[in-house]
Design a protein that fits this description.
This protein has helices at 2-19, 23-42. By secondary structure, it is mainly α.
Length: 43
């Protein structure tokens, strides 16, 4: 389970670094990462 969360977090971090052009974009990416981690933890 920890390995899955680490993989998802690494993928989201990489995607967010390449996709964020504004401060608002950074906030949206962080929010998505939190939702993904929460979803993985519930499983």
């Amino acid at each position: 389970m920890k390995k899955l969360v680490a993989i998802v977090l690494a993928a989201l971090l990489g995607a967010s670094l390449s996709a964020c052009n504004t401060v608002a974009g950074v906030g949206k990416d962080i929010e998505k990462a939190g939702e993904t981690i929460s979803g993985a933890a519930k499983k």
